[in-house]
Description:
Layout: H1 7-22, H2 26-40, H3 50-64, H4 71-83, H5 85-94, H6 98-108, H7 119-131, E1 136-137, H8 139-148, E2 151-155, H9 161-175, E3 182-188, H10 198-204, E4 212-217, H11 231-238, E5 242-246, H12 248-254, E6 261-265, H13 269-275, E7 282-286
Parallel strand pairs: 1-7, 2-3, 2-5, 3-4, 5-6
Antiparallel strand pairs: 6-7
Amino acid sequence: xxxxxxxLPCTLKxxxxxxxxxxxxxxxxxxxxxxxxxxxxxxxxxxxxIELAYVVHGIVxxxxxxxxxxxxxxxxxxxxxxxIYPKLKKIVEDFDDKLEAAARLAIAGNAIDFCVxxxxxxxxxxxxxxxxxxxxxxxxxxKERVSxxxxxxxxxxxxxxxxxxxLLLETMLEVVDEPYKKITIVARGGPLLNDxxxxxxxxxxxxxxxxxxxxCVSNGEEGTGPPPMSDEVRxxxxxxxxxxxxxxxxxxxxxEVKDIxxxxxxxxxxxxxxxxAKVGDLVLKYSG
Length: 288
């Protein structure tokens, strides 16, 4: 999915939030937002939406000197999700189909985005995931593939949300006859919005699962990993027999890749049109 005309004003609003998180200096804020607006005016329509975020974070690092404006927010998101982990675990245990419950909760975790949600916000998303129908529902095929897979690759999205991902992977391991030979966890190689980093993966204990390998994709900075839309990352997917992608940003990049499951809450009309759903809908989609 390439940049749509609706992506620019949306990302400009996000850019202002990033800049406000990075500094209280009004002069620096104005310089940074002006640079962002100018850079967006020179954008190529053939780029992916995430590349707009690369531009914003590069300007924040250059003008304000802050590399990770969401560092504290990510820590609080992780702590919030960890605090309700026992409740999430009980929901799964009480469900007839534990894997379905864990998959639905993983999608609900995608509500943790851009800012720290209140306990009530998150509980509403959890209740919706448990009770409502998925708008796009390829769970039957997902369940079949989970049971047959030997090597899994899992593309993470936001901090906090990764606790829900941990629960899904733990449940997947419970329903298979033997542990997967490899579980490749893909995080961001450097700060980008509230995307999870390797330090977040370790903080919530995702790295403690059996046969885990950690990999990183780029945040737009040199040396932080290959771009998520690169042939190298496509090669990673082909090396596994089950690929799972979390969140809208990963959907925008990976939905055209064959043989991948996409779990997300739809958050913008452009993605809604692409996926065949409405904003706010829960989706478990197989790319075919």
